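Justification of resources, computational component.

The compute hours requested in this renewal are based largely on the per-chain cost of generating structure records like the one below. Each record pairs the submitted sequence with a full structure-token output. That output is archived, and it is also reused by downstream analysis tasks.
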Amino acid sequence: MARKYVSKRNLEFMLYEVFDAPGLTRYPYYAQHNKKVFDLTLAAALKLGKDLLNPIFEEMDRKAPYLENGRVKVHPAVRTIMAQFGEGGWIAAKFDEKYDGARLPYLIADCCQFIFTAANYSASVFPGLTAKAARLITSFGSPEQIATYVPKMLGGKWQGTMALTEPQAGSSLADIATTAVPTDQGHYLMRGQKIFISAGDHDGVENVVQMMLAKIEGAPAGVKGISLFIVPNQRPTTDGGLEPNDVTVTQIYHKMGYRGAPITELSIGEKNDCRGYLVGQAHNGLAYMFQMMNGSRLSVGMAAIGISTAAYYAALDYARQRPQGRLVSDPTTPQVPIIAHADIRRLLLFQRAFVEGAFALAMQCCLYADLENALEGEAKEKAALLLDLLIPVVKTYPAETSIRSTSQAIQIFGGYGYCEDFPVEQHFRDTRIHTIHEGTTGIQGIDILGRKVRMKNGKAFDLYLEEVGRAIDQARAVETLKPYAQRLAEALDELRQITAGLIARGEAQGSRAMLADATLYLDYFSLIAVAWQWLLQAITADKGLAGHPSKANRNFYEGKLLTARYFFHYELPKAMGLARRLSEGDGLTLAMESDYFSD
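The structure output for this chain reads:
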């Protein structure tokens, strides 16, 4: 029997009732679409997840990729997945028509990607990475580079990757050592080593195209000397064929989860015959790569939500069917399904409050991306600033909270959840990578506090306060939501004060003192951001109830309102403790010298 891993009803609620995706079609940029197109796209994505991705969810985990004769072997279905995603236009979904794309709004395309990650995260990575790498080429590459690589990538025949990390550098990209030596033949000779490269090689495609960061000989030190190169594993020849490009897979990493997609170590230019092709201007590679990294950060958050959503529905189904224990009010009754117990409902409420609140925040970011595409001038800048501000939040809150959420799904299953007989142990393993992917949690905390809330003299932060303030004003007009509007208003005012205090601390004591608890600040900011999204959902659900819906829709809206109440009563209060810590400023972690960590 097919398992449920997403709610079509909730997707439609978000797209059509909360965020009004069809409203985007009034802008010329999205005018070729309508709600019928969106409905058909959503239905096709659900079918693809059900028929192609989810049936091999466990199998891809159990039969992990392996290295044989220098080539990575993946599950045979990967070739089918890439072909179908290419032929069906899914890889090109957000691209312009000139690339045979559909120019779908982010709201719709990323909602479909969410479905794919919930169905089978490992399988979703192959086309997802390829789309982002191709976007990098269309944005900054030459017409010749676009013509050579993009059609094959969007068609699902060639894989795309991002090749940043090196053994000695990790997240510190300023320290990368891969070099590029210019030649007089239109290419550079590349040499170095890359680690942790997702899909860095596999037999599910004809070729793999690495979007690689390296330093040209004689480049400036640090990040100012980084350039971006296209480095294919097999380089195209003049007669339309392919030949080896001196990129060698030296190992596949054996992982805790996310096992269906290979993570590789690559040796570049061992024979001094690896050709790389400069993208855009020299020494501007990190700025280019940030486009792919920011897109990937949104995707990482969405993937964590997707995995946790699948775990939530597995736990919900089990809780409804598993009889155990009796109601404490009457121990003489027969056993009841465990969903009747209050603590199980608390565990389920936490999961639902997380996955649906975080998904709404991700959809909010998608809407800002769509408005940035569709608008001009000051309105365009506003959307871009809000999206930039929220990227570390939408990446990190889902990534961190999904660990707890999938763990609680295991808890509902009890001992069975810890075993491979049920899917939740795999969801728990699969999601753990997301706090590391595309910049660790600590890096995201430094980003939001050290840069984002202060960029353009605090303009992005001020715009955010206005956005949340508008939702508060709307909720105050609904009698039952007034208490929650007030709670969020108080939290938002405290966020303003805490942020100002931390910035003042930085000015007085230096950035190290200001950023010592940046991760806590990100946690704090995130709780308020998700409360904002739950208030928006509550406003919409209240309107739905006023429309005298059917019993099924009434249950849906009532469930939304109660879950919103849960978040405000159980999760948002945690912000108070974080605010207290952030206001203390005693530099405790800085005072703890490394030598004090003695045995």
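The chain has three domains: 8-154, 158-282, 441-589. The longest strand covers residues 188-198.
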